[in-house]
């Protein structure tokens, strides 16, 4: 037990001023920003800051540097200026993987309007089984991507998969999804949509809950139909949630890796034409061990996500209602 | 307190008086049809996986789908443990997840508290640096993290799997927000009673932060259990991998033992799915409010 006398707290300003007794009489600089906490804050912050510094901050600086170096065959490296970037922008594989990433992201974004509809149904007052539906829709989001990828591989199998079986019922001859470049991306994106739908729904449902019921009552008194209420009350007031979900979905979309890797399989010959940006990065960095080139790709991913996010914030003013 | 309030809000249907009420009390047949069909689509792959895990390999690959196996092959689940280093991988997953979750709770609550409640030189700048990490995609630090782990001789070890994930900028941000929202009176009272900052933190603030700590724990468990890229990078041997990476190596062979893969996948997902179903309200609210995985 520490006694009170150890830490004299002037009753007037308990959180300001140093613990040093004024008896010393030494002239002190006025208003030092350091607090009575002394070294305590550093004890609290130290472990995390050290960890973040070593494992995140320093690696970011290092990757930026690596992207300017050429990796030698034995792991050494030499400064190469922008050579990696020049090579990257001339590499057709960059555009193939960028194209696939964009296609994937675009398809997954289709999930957002679907989620708006489903969330408004889920939020109907007094709906029975709502908790049950919520669990069902959220299940794919918490499930391990590599584990669910295994079923979807079979569902999309060209010979005995259910998708092609269903298509055959309509006389359509389905492709070998997993081994046809464009089809593979679509198949992966369908799984991506399926697994992220629940997350969007839940965020949107929370947004819906924040809409004051009085607004609906007022609209109803004005004789607005349910559809009109949805358009004039729900949609505008939901735009901030939609914006948030869109940002998150796009960022996640640009980082596609797990599902693609697990659905296609690392030895799939079609991978070079179906890969995403992050798979491209992974292959160059950890399969081909070309550190400098992989670093340049990583910086490119960073840049693309940054640009996409900046564009969305720009466009936000046009459609997001901020009270 | 707060979490109970939120839980109550979520569980109770918003009561609406007024003219709209009678019309809305209907059976919602349309909503049930749409949500029911949608829910089935969501659940179907899991059910289909179960069916396939109980089928023979021939049944899985039959061109006319076999929706229920002639004889349920429960033995496949035993084979998962015989044929695969499943127990080792499960052990790795559990160990990695538990260590990371405890470490993140420790480091992130401590740092989050200091960033929210203590004054010290450089606090603003340090916080800005930590939060800026949030905007950087993981690929940017992966190469270098790998080299650090390699340099430490920790490739193919639990240490290597665990290490970077012990620290989280997101967790710090989450905890700081929670501590910022807390009333100052209790803290000041404890200080006047002579408690040192660590005692104030441990005895007063940490218990109050429990709801947010559980959000942090849930997100860390999910993220750690399901993560693929980092384990693929730092482990090469099957028995050194966690389940997520171990499963990914099962595919691509010319002769795939589908039932085995399905059974292993279900078993690998099971712990987190069970946890989710048990804690679903907390998990959903936590993830929805944190907005990040």
From TrEMBL, chain A:
Pfam families: BPD_transp_1 (PF00528). The chain crosses the membrane at residues 39-58, 102-124, 136-156, 176-206, 235-254, 260-281, 293-313. Residues 1-33 are annotated as: Disordered. The keyword Amino-acid biosynthesis does not apply. The keyword Transport applies. Residues 97-312 form the ABC transmembrane type-1 domain. GO terms for biological process: transmembrane transport. It is found in: Cell membrane. It is a multi-pass membrane protein. Keywords: Cell membrane, Membrane, Transmembrane, Transmembrane helix, Transport. One of its GO terms (cellular component) is plasma membrane. Residues 14-27 have a biased composition (Low complexity). Belongs to the binding-protein-dependent transport system permease family. This is Sugar ABC transporter permease. The lineage of its organism: Bacteria, Bacillati, Actinomycetota, Actinomycetes, Micrococcales.
TrEMBL record, chain B:
It is a multi-pass membrane protein. Pfam families: BPD_transp_1 (PF00528). Keywords: Cell membrane, Membrane, Transmembrane, Transmembrane helix, Transport. InterPro entries: MetI-like, MetI-like_sf. The chain crosses the membrane at residues 25-48, 94-116, 125-149, 161-179, 200-225, 260-279. This is Carbohydrate ABC transporter permease. GO terms for biological process: transmembrane transport. Belongs to the binding-protein-dependent transport system permease family. It is found in: Cell membrane. CDD domains: TM_PBP2 (cd06261). GO terms for cellular component: plasma membrane. Residues 90-279 form the ABC transmembrane type-1 domain. Coiled coil: none annotated. The keyword Membrane applies. The lineage of its organism: Bacteria, Bacillati, Actinomycetota, Actinomycetes, Micrococcales. SUPFAM superfamilies: MetI-like (SSF161098).
């Amino acid at each position: 037990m520490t006694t009170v006398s150890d830490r004299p707290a002037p009753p007037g300003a308990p959180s300001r001023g140093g613990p040093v007794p004024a008896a010393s009489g030494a002239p002190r600089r006025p208003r030092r920003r350091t607090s009575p906490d002394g070294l305590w804050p550093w004890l609290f912050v130290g472990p995390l800051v050290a960890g973040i510094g070593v494992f995140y901050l320093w690696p970011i600086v290092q990757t930026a540097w690596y992207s300017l170096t050429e990796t030698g065959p034995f792991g050494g490296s030499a400064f190469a200026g922008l050579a990696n970037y020049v090579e990257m922008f001339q590499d057709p594989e960059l555009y193939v993987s960028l194209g696939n990433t964009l296609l994937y992201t675009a398809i997954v974004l289709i999930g957002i309007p679907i989620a708006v509809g489903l969330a408004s149904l889920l939020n109907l007052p007094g709906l029975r089984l709502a908790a049950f539906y919520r669990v069902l829709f959220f299940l794919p989001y918490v499930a391990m991507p590599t584990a669910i990828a295994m079923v979807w591989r079979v569902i999309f199998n060209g010979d005995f998969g259910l998708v092609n079986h269903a298509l055959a019922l309509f006389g359509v001859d389905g492709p070998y999804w997993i081994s046809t470049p464009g089809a593979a991306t679509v198949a992966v994106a369908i799984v991506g949509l399926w697994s992220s739908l629940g997350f969007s729904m839940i965020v949107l449902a929370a947004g819906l809950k924040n809409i004051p019921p009085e607004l609906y009552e007022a609209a109803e008194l004005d004789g607005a139909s349910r559809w009109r209420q949805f358009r004039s009350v729900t949609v505008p007031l939901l735009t901030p949630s939609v914006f948030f979900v869109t940002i998150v979905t796009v960022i996640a979309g640009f980082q596609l890796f797990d599902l693609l890797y697990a659905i296609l399989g690392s030895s799939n010959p079609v991978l070079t034409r179906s890969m995403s940006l992050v798979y491209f990065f992974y292959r160059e960095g950890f399969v081909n061990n070309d550190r400098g080139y992989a670093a340049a790709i990583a910086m490119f991913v960073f840049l693309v996500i940054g640009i996409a996010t900046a564009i969305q914030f720009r466009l936000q003013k046009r459609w997001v209602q901020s009270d | 307190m707060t979490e109970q309030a939120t839980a109550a809000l979520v569980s109770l249907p918003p009561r609406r008086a007024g003219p709209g009420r009678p019309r809305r009390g209907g059976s919602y047949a349309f909503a049930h049809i749409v949500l029911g069909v949608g829910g089935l689509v969501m659940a179907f792959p899991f059910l289909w996986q179960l069916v396939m895990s109980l089928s023979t390999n021939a049944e899985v690959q039959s061109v006319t789908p076999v929706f229920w196996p002639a004889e349920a092959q429960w033995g496949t689940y035993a084979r998962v443990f015989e044929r695969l280093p499943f127990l080792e991988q499960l052990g790795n997953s559990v160990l990695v997840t538990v260590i990371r979750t405890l470490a993140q709770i420790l480091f992130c609550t401590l740092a989050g508290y200091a960033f929210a409640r203590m004054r010290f030189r450089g606090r603003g700048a340090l916080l800005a640096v930590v939060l800026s990490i949030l905007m950087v995609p993981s690929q940017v630090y992966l190469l270098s993290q790998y080299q650090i782990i390699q340099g430490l001789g920790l490739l193919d070890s639990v240490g290597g799997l665990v290490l970077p994930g012990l620290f989280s900028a997101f967790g710090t941000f989450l905890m700081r927000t929670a501590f910022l929202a807390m009333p100052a009176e209790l803290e000041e009272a404890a200080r006047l009673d002579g408690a040192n900052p660590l005692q104030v933190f441990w005895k007063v603030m940490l218990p109050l932060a429990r709801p947010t700590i559980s959000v942090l724990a849930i997100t860390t468990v999910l993220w750690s259990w399901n993560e693929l890229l980092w384990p693929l990078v730092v482990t090469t041997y099957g028995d050194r991998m966690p389940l997520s990476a171990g499963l990914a190596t099962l595919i691509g062979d010319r002769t795939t033992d589908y039932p085995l893969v399905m059974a292993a996948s279900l078993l690998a997902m099971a712990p987190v799915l069970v946890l989710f179903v048990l804690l679903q309200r907390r998990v959903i609210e936590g993830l929805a409010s944190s907005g990040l995985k």
